[in-house]
Design brief:
Trefoil (Acidic Fibroblast Growth Factor, subunit A), 2 helices, repeat, Ins145_P3_rcpt
């Protein structure tokens, strides 16, 4: 059984009470990946296998090549942006280091505990639901300011329509309800209710290289 839930251990996670297993709690901040070609290939491949597709082998091969090129372009973009200073208003993806999966909002599925919220889970490839805009939790920072370690931020999903003014935006949200099968943890979902996430630096990008010894 693969557990792809995103949860928070309520007692741990502060400098004075660090997590018992750091690798469970590390996220790499990544630039947004593009998914259009891969999505088209995945969709058409399912239809092709079930016999519903109008595409022949040659067309499917072209879709596969386009999807692979898109993945290569994503990797190139990742290398190009390494070391860039992240600013408020930047759209990013959060890669969970241990599972190698992206934090993702599934718009059309309710969360397990808080049924009026959207489901948040960890996805292997990611999709447009994995894009989050970093916004300041407080008004003394504005869009364009640099995000510093220790800052409190809101993570607003790019894929969710947040056009309504005067209301709290849908954002990555920590539920008030404890998990039934994990009584010291709460669910992470997506809801139009404020949750502040504090940024703690674990490693700088240039410290996370194969030739650097890490303890």
């Amino acid at each position: 059984l693969v557990d792809d839930r995103c949860i928070v251990e309520l007692r741990d996670g502060r400098p004075e009470s660090p997590p018992k297993k750091f690798r469970d709690c590390l996220f790499k901040v990544c630039p947004v990946n593009r998914y259009a070609a891969q999505k088209q290939y995945w969709t058409e491949q399912k239809r092709f296998i079930s016999g519903e597709s109008t595409f022949d082998d040659d067309m499917m091969n072209k879709l596969r090549i386009a999807a692979e090129k898109e993945k290569e372009q994503n990797e190139l973009e990742f290398r190009k942006t390494q070391g860039n200073v992240i600013q408020y208003g930047t759209t990013v993806q959060l890669l969970h280091v241990k599972s190698d999966k992206y934090v993702t909002v599934q718009k059309n599925s309710p969360a397990k505990c808080e049924r009026n919220a959207m489901k948040v889970y960890l996805d292997r490839a990611g999709n447009e639901g994995s894009w989050f805009i970093i916004e300041p939790a407080y008004k003394h920072y504005v869009i364009g300011d640099s995000v510093a370690a220790g800052n409190k931020i809101s993570l607003v999903p790019y894929s969710v329509n947040n056009q309504t003014s005067g209301h709290v935006k849908h954002q990555l949200h920590l539920s008030h309800y404890l998990l039934k099968d994990h009584q010291t943890a709460a669910e992470v979902n997506c809801l139009n209710e404020c949750t502040e996430w504090q940024v703690f630096m674990f490693l700088l990008f240039n410290e996370n290289q194969p030739d650097i010894v890490k303890s």
